[in-house]
Amino acid sequence: MHLGCPPANFQPMPSATINGRTITAPDGATILDAARGAGVEIPTLCWYPKLPIAGNCRICVVSVDGQAKLLPACATKITEDMRVTTESPEAVAARRGVLKMLLERYPADHLINGGRARPNNQFEDYVVRYGVQPTPVGQRLPLLRRGDERPGDPMISHDMTRCILCTRCVRACEDIQVVGVLDVGYRGEQAQIIVGADGDPDKAACTWCGECVRVCPTGAIFEVLPQQRFGEIPVTAEPVVQSVCPYCGVGCRIELHVEDDEVLRVTSPSIELDTPNQGSTCVKGRFGYDYVQHRDRLTAPLIRRGWVKRGTRWVWTGPNGADRRAGPWRSIEAEGHELKHPAPPRATGKRLRDLPLLDRVTMDIRERAATPPDWYQPFRQATWDEALELVAQEMSRVHAEHGPEAMAVFQSAKCTNEENYLLQRLIRARFGTNNVDHCTRLCHSTSVSAMQAALNTAAASGSMREVEEACDVIFIAGANTTETHPVFGASLKRAHKRGAFLIVADPRRIELARLADIHLQMQPGTDVALFNAMLHHILAQGLENREFIAQRTKSFDAVKQAVAPYPPERAEAITGVPAALIRQAAERYAKGPNTTTLWAMGLTQHLTGHDMVTSLLNLILATGMIGRWGAAMMPVRGQNNVQGASDMGAIPFVYPDYQSVSDPAMREKFARVWGVEPERMSLTPGLKVTEMTQEGSPIRALYIMGENPIISDPDIAHAEAWFRSIEFLAVQDLFLTETARYADVVLPGASFAEKTGTFVNTERRIQLAHQAIHPPGTARADWEIIVDLSNRLGLPTTFPSPEAVMEEIRQVAPAWAGVSYQRLKNLAGLQYPVPSDDHPGTAFLFDDRFPTPDGKATFHPAQYTDPAELPDQEYPFVMNTGRQLYHWHTGTMSRRSNGLDAREPTAIVEIHPDDAAELGITDGDLVRLTSRRNAVVISARVSDRVARRQIFVPFHFREAAANLLTSPVLEPHAKMPALKVCAVRIEPVAVGATV
Amino acid sequence: MHETTYEPVFTGDRKKQLDQLLPRFPTKRAALLPALWMVQQARGWISDHAMAEVAEVLGLTPAYVKGVVTFYTMYHQHPVGKHFVQVCTTTPCNLCGAEGVVKAFLEHTGCKELGATSPDGKYTVIEVECLGACGFPTPVMIGDDFIENVTPEGVPELLRKYQ
Lengths: 995, 163
What we know:
A: six-stranded mixed barrel, 16% strand, B: Glutaredoxin
């Protein structure tokens, strides 16, 4: 039940009363629901909103006239004429009895004689409220309760003496996260909470999401981090600031608890509020916030030694040529080749002190993942005046000497909309170039190109919540949602549990594939053949939506012809998926009635990424599975603001809100708002990230805000050389990253917790995050840096706050016209398009037309071609790259987060058990991976998640960077590198051998 | 309790046996108790590893399986002797001398105490609540065999049949 928002079947019940007040309640409501709706508090322990009712604690019992016995309010439906008294003498006496009984096994000596309850301890609050006196522990017979305690766990620990067996944690794990790590074991007085079969959360498939921490009413299950960092947690309630999680595109609402200008802990808003995460977070959101306070944070601007001010000008006096950007570090390539420690055991189940000394040393992540001290050596600390003056001087000089096409910026999907708006405004208005791009290029750029061609749109059509609530069939292609978007992944699992049919197309046997009703385990890069075959079968069976095709689309015949050569048998030969399975999946997909389609990097990061998405869109359009609640088209966005950065025009061919840079009318409009002559701005689309960093690119000066391309770009060895070759490089970041170490100037920015601004999640939801703490040292909010720099570069910029920037954005972006900070103060945010002040936002799009001139979508045929690289005798394995649950992209943030890094401390390669056996490799062994470009030494993890002859390498790790191996070949439409398919060979490395 | 190396239970014939069993239940979860019996028959007891295997085979969580195993007293969570001896010591049998029978079993099997396994690994003796044969004291179960009218004197002879 959503309080304050009665459902449609709302039935007033005028004759029921609670404590003498007449109340109304929706049909089927319990006494507790009705009381909460009326603002009457009834104590609860085992009850929790949205969890199945257990009714085992009996603290919510109430008196009902005419009933001889007390009734549990949580489990009794309210009926006509019911007269309820919540605090009757009988009910209070029963509650005291319940509390007294629970106290017999609970350490409550601190509550004797009027002691205070511990903070956030619901149970102790009730004990104090109802005046129950605990017996001192020493005078009792029953022992304190026991249970599995997760010793040595880096994030979650248990003090099971405080457990009251309410089983909220068990139900939250089972019903919200759909994992089931916890249960009640043993019986009678021995009953206790158990973790898996042997107390090891790892073996019980725990994802460390912390849902159990959130629901525990006594703190028996608690978060380790605040205690590690702050010792005893202060008793006073700390200030709480509403923010948005800085990791993935789900855009979870989180609350930052602040103590002494530091983030003490992260919690999430109530499960009952309308937020994208509905109260949940994943491990990164809840426990991955300590990077904000990491000692590596840059606290002052850095200038490369060699830059000296002579009179009014900065002059380079350092070495030129290859040594221009040298430093006392090894290149990523050299680190990759180096022998390293085999992967230590994951930090769980073993206390650190139980490990051998060597393991303990290698597990001290603060030393290992931190910025090496010598990286700072080529730099000196500077003032903001010096640093910005130098940036302004050099960017102006390069612009004057080499022209607009020599200038470029990389924007950031981690920065706010306001910051991204300001930076593209700067480069376009001041330097007259559209050389602006960001990591969307390596993410969903092929989806955008395919969706623009077919539907003229660049975002998801629906909402995450509709998948959980309303869809009948979920089709997931190339998206490892439970690891990369875990909160959305959990909602998919809930949907599957309530009966939605799950089809997963993925070369790996990921968690969702194991759960799936149908798993289409195809060869990497063969998706076009698979989707075409599905459409072929749908047409053969006459299952297409003819009405939709006729009324809402055009050019269907071309696709009909294009899929004709793809009978499922041919697809079987290409993809390796049995034809019968393809047929079955196709039928389920087409029959829906509401099918939601999700995809992510598994489709986009291919040489044929555009064609893969196109063929998937053909499937969506031919079956009409779009534009209804429950039938959503969802490219799942990676970064927390990759959607927003694109919306703000951080792409080379459009202004904010996808308004073409080639359109003179648009140029006129933006020039007027930005206060420059239209002729100073370029009508030519700019270069894309992947084009800028290629040899022979015209870029001479580059300004990077919050990106680390040296780890994320393909073929790192070449990328690293390119970054060293340009004339001027400025990097604005939180840390001295692998890219920033080559910069002339490094500008310290602010993390998400240190600034106010808006982010857009994967379902187009604009959300406002508030500043909680101050940036360290003299670091500044990124928008302030850009405003300052713009003024120094002669582009008058007078925004006093991010809110003022948003006021300008809504003027120029029609879909954002109704967005204001005032409206964004509610937790739910606004889903654009929001065309006017009174528009409520748009949960799903395209119910009657597509945003094309004639309102129709266009089919585009797609033909299968082989992946860019095929394995051969020399390179017999296909390597796939991607993310892990515990890490984030280039590891800048997550590897500086204690808990996350303890779970995945080193680079690994997943290899199938049979392949491992053939090669004589066991779990943890060092192996050398060699591709046609480069090699890395890395630890093996034997896992049947990967198919035979395929391996998976996460790209988070500098010391064994997956992208040393990947191919820089670009997809022709969107210039996306083909990161997903790369042929490699594997050899065991004998420990002690030289590399 | 943990084993060092673990061989899966449900392979070969036992897997076939389980597969034949499953259609008789409305859900896989409903087959949990018989599946656990099969483990206990095969191994004599149910280890953490075996619980995890059953969970995997039936699509349950390891914690759920452990919750069930630890709820029931007839599933062994520790290794027991080859012959598991259960002596009824509830009131009527007790009145008729069941304690003497227990003592005789402990003495002749070499088990030092109730619940412990004899040094030769052959026997484990426990007391059990009513075996439902109050007219024929003292009833005893050895493995799956049900034996009535056991007296302390009869124990050595009885044990000779269970070597």
